[in-house]
Design goal:
This protein is mainly α. Helix content is about 70%, strand content about 0%. It is built from three helices and no strands. The chain has helices at about 15-35, 35-55, 65-95. The protein is elongated and about 65 Å long.
């Protein structure tokens, strides 16, 4: 049965657990290519923690993957910004971080 004009079809939203199971590995690989395995694991965990906290705000009419990758991209930018700041501070102090 088609929805009446002005009515929206109900879209079956996957559960967070289903999305986590399907998307963690591809998201981790995406992040690992950009920052290495250790930082990628932290960023992937932070991405899913943020997604879980905001799960109720997910628009059921839109796909989940671009939303998750948007969160990951923002966290990645924050990571790079923090890393640049840390390196700049090391350069100013003259202390070798190693």
């Amino acid at each position: 049965m088609e929805p009446l004009r002005g009515e929206r079809e109900t879209v079956d939203v996957p559960s967070f657990e289903e999305v986590f199971a399907a998307e963690f590995r591809p998201l981790f690989r995406y992040l690992r290519r950009r920052v290495g395995a250790a930082a990628a694991e932290d960023l992937a965990e932070a991405t899913f923690a943020t997604a879980f906290a905001r799960w109720e705000r997910l628009d059921p009419d839109r796909p989940v993957r671009p939303w998750l990758y948007g969160i990951a991209a923002n966290l990645l930018r924050h990571h790079w910004r923090d890393e640049r700041r840390m390196l700049r501070d090391y350069a100013r102090s003259g202390v070798d971080p190693v």
